[in-house]
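tool_log.txt
---
The assistant was asked to compare two proteins side by side. It first ran the structure predictor on the initial sequence, then on the second. Raw inputs and outputs are pasted verbatim so the downstream comparison step can read them without reformatting.
(1)
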Amino acid sequence: MPTTGERFERAVSIMAKLRGPGGCPWDREQTFDSIKPYTLEETYEVLEAIDNRDWEELKGELGDLLLQVLFYSQMAQEDGKFAVDDVLDRLSNKLVHRHPHVFGDVTAETSADVLRNWEALKAEEKRKRLEA
């Protein structure tokens, strides 16, 4: 049975093959702008599956949404901007940073405390981005 990491690597390599030489002509001609409508469409389909409590459909729709992330990441890698590893690192770092009550020494007894901390950290990150 393949691990989660192996499954993820397989999906990443499939996307690279689709965009690479000898890959799919349609996939190869897509741009960040051309696939934006599909990202929105897939998001709505995820929400619809949740509303319908259709868990089998949700599995497929979440896969379609993940495809969008892989597509954007592959195009960015081709352009020398970033790779899917950078996306994963950014996500992991953000989750750890924004959950100091789990990964640090901050106390949050309620979900309201968590949201207050989250918003404060988000505002601090934004301020630092604007100063840079």
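(2)
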Amino acid sequence: MLERVKVGGGVSLLITDGIYYTWREDLCTSSNVAETLFVEIDKSLFGGNSNIVVGVLYRPPDSDM
């Protein structure tokens, strides 16, 4: 399980065993406005033409858009 934590919260993404991924730190952010976590799954796992990027985004209800 990947997890990015800040004081009072965080986001996480559960990935099953056998799925190999790369943590995309360049896409992740943690601020008072939103928290994100992104991973990239290799195309060979699904037989596709390009890698798959999966992300989690959380925006607290009291934050500015």
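---
observation on (2): The radius of gyration is 13 Å. The chain is about 0% helix and 45% strand.
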